[in-house]
Amino acid sequence: MTFEDWFRKDRLPHIFCAGCGNGTIINCTLAAVDQMDWKKEETVFVSGIGCSSRAPGYIMTDSLHTTHGRALAFATGVKMANRKLNVVVFTGDGDLAAIGGNHFIHACRRNIDMTVVCMNNQIYGMTGGQGSPTTPRGYLSTTTPYGSAEPAFDLCDLAIAAGANYVARWTSYHVKELEKAVLAGLQTPGLSFIEAMTQCPTNFGRRNKFRQVADQVEFLKKHSLLKVKRDRLLLENKEVPADMFVVGELVRRSRPAMGVSP
Amino acid sequence: MKLAIDETRCKGCNLCTKVCPYKIFREGKKPNRRGIVVPELDRPERCANCRLQKLYGRRLCGICELTCPDQAIHWVEEEPYEPHKVAIEY
Amino acid sequence: MTRTEFWQGNTACAEGALAAGCNFFGGYPITPSTEVAEHMALRLPKKNGVFIQMEDELASMAAIIGASWTGARAMTATSGPGFSLMMENIGFAAMTETPCVIVNVQRGGPSTGQPTMGAQGDMMQCRFGSHGDYSVIALCPASVQEMFELTAKAFNLADRYRVPVFLMADEIVGHMREKITVPDSVERVARRELIRGTLPFAAGDDLVPGFATFGKGYGVHVTGLTHDERGYPCTTNVKIHHNLVKRLVDKVENARRDVADFDIINPDAGDVFIAYGAPVRTVQQVLHDNPGRKIGFLRIRTVWPFPDFALGQFKNARRFLVPEMNFGQIAREIERHVRVPVVSIPKLGGDLHLPGELMAALEARL
Q1: Would you kindly state where each structural domain of chain C is located, as residue ranges?
Q2: Structural domain includes residue B50
Q3: Of C69, C193, C225, which to mutate for an interface test with A (greatest number of A Cβ within 10 Å)?
Q4: Do C56 and A102 touch (CB under 8 A)?
């Protein structure tokens, strides 16, 4: 079986724009799920609202497409009521960091045994490109026409502080690494959080001088700083570039987890 | 095995042209019936997975398949299977 | 064999849920419903159930919907402000036809209002609170005994019709301690499973589709978007949306007579009291105090869908008197169905109507 077999083929092609990275991240997640030898009937995909959250609709398992920001609360109910089910949550930056921020930190605190994949495109794509809590300072969106004035959230730091057992960040360019990170997340008991930085050519790239899809992917690639490199810079007391984000496995630990299948 | 692009799914984003280490995918020139410029394949027999999957018994590389956001790239069995002579430039 | 207990209304509610097989409770503390959660926290783990205290009411409602899809009998309990927060996901439960039970021990509103005083101000909110058209079932207990019985019944109705079912109690009934007869077992109506090979949101004559429980290989996609019979989003098709919402409303409204639960006393009287919830107790006192007088009484346990056909049984009714602990929310609903005057007797602030107040309304000239 390959990850292709997890798609509802009758529903493809999906609604994502040309060049949207969400499809890539779904591929990587499903490739990891495929390696887990999970049965389709024992796997549930949960999502909230937004571009990213349309993903479960294309996956051939039981799937729950819920209200904006609440995916983790729904997933908590699913997992706690039936621990045998493997729960994977797809979410986006607006869904998770803005409206669902409270559910996010509490799901991390409870450390419920599920995997959360956040497709962070740094914008509200589905509503037409409004600024989100992860839009970097100075970047343009329809609600930040003079450049975002607010500092952005670091979702991984948030998950680490709140207590998730596994936290990693990769981009839609690093497909193999992302697949491995999701796999590690699926294997870790407790909450695993994988942030996948992704391109949104239609609403983010178009307004921020990324003329081609590949330009933004190239940007993500160039601005990702490997964790080992960051640690080395810190060790040598050198400055970590402010415009780069750290990629790699950021935390792996074994805090007590809830809802682990007996 | 040979590479194939599913024209019914491809949206013409050309990400595959960026990620293939052998540069097998090239930007297309003519829009298809749906108005999408689907990438072309440049000597696809160079693809490592096409050549060596049978030998190793597992998926090799596969970056293009994973990256394609529209699930449009996959491998199809060739009937009958013929080993290709391949010249790889480094 | 039954046993007799002296319980608080909220305890009886939790015990009623347990008797009905409730095995998942997601909640958030709020006066005056907290005792339901406390009692569930005490009892559920011993019965292999799951109690989880969520981070807010939005999450509580979400969690019980998630749990319900795995086949659990799920419930939450809240009050006033928490009920407002739940509205978002109550709409989701209505759209996705998720069986769940929501206990609202009503308190004085709006906003934080009177946390420790009773009210019936959420009767319209439970029916129309979430956006869009849908229909729900709401039950109103008037005693500790009914807290037990109607909670158990709520689970059966939720599973039968695949709707969110509300137990609209109030602080008075919730915090009251009374004698209660606890039966050994209560009737349980099982959720009807989806027949394999059929579409998960295609309904038969009763308009209620079979339930595709998660984890059984149905591969169902559940979405709050307008969906077709396969469950796939279909948001711009006029016909599909119309038919879906019409079915959501009709499946409950068509069951009005099956769901209805009411008592009629003196159907040939001229003056008729209509009450639900705690004010029922005052009307009963008035009837008890005036045995010689013909006073009609319609006491309603299922406020939604409103049993309008019951009003027709009062053939000689000259007027309907409706004591409520709100400014006439259900009195307005009754007005839609009758030609004679409807006198609303509102009382806010947390006290029950006094028998004298109802008598004064009875004596007052039209």
Answers
A1: 1-259, 262-363
A2: yes
A3: C69
A4: yes
Domain count, chain B: 1
- Has this prediction a pTM greater than 0.90? yes
Classify residue A204 by its DSSP letter: I
Task: Note whether ipTM > 0.85 here.
Answer: yes
Flag whether B88 is in a domain: no
Question: How far is the C-alpha of A95 from the C-alpha of A49, rounded, in Å?
Answer: 6
Minimal CA–CA distance to C82: which of C140, C27, C119?
C27
d(CA C204, CA A258): 40
Tell me the residue length of chain B.
90
Q: Which residue of A has its CA nearest to C213?
A: A62
- Min CA distance, A9 vs chain B (Å)? 10
| Percentages of chain C per state (helix, strand, coil), in multiples of 5 | 35, 25, 40
Instruction: List the structure tokens of B4.
Output: 């194939």
Its domain, for residue B11, covers: 2-76
Q: Where are the domains of chain A?
A: 17-252
Residues whose CB is less than 8 angstroms from the CB of residue A141 and which lie 6 or more positions away in sequence, other chains included: A123, A124, A129, A130, A131, A132, A135, A148, A203, A204, A207
Residue B82: pLDDT band by 50, 70, 90 thresholds?
Answer: low
User: Shortest CA distance to C101 belongs to which of C159, C141, C171?
Assistant: C159
CATH of domain C1-259: 3.40.50.970
Confidence of residue B87 (pLDDT cuts 50, 70, 90): confident
Q: Which fold does the domain A17-252 belong to in CATH?
A: Rossmann fold (3.40.50)
The answer, yes or no, to whether residue C363 has pLDDT greater than 80, is yes
pLDDT at B90 over 80: no
CATH architecture of structural domain C262-363:
3-Layer(aba) Sandwich (3.40)
The verdict on A213 touching B (C-beta cutoff 8 Å) is: yes
Which pLDDT score, from 0 to 100, does residue C366 have? 58
Query: Whole-angstrom Cα distance, residue B24 to residue B17?
Result: 7
SS3 A146: coil
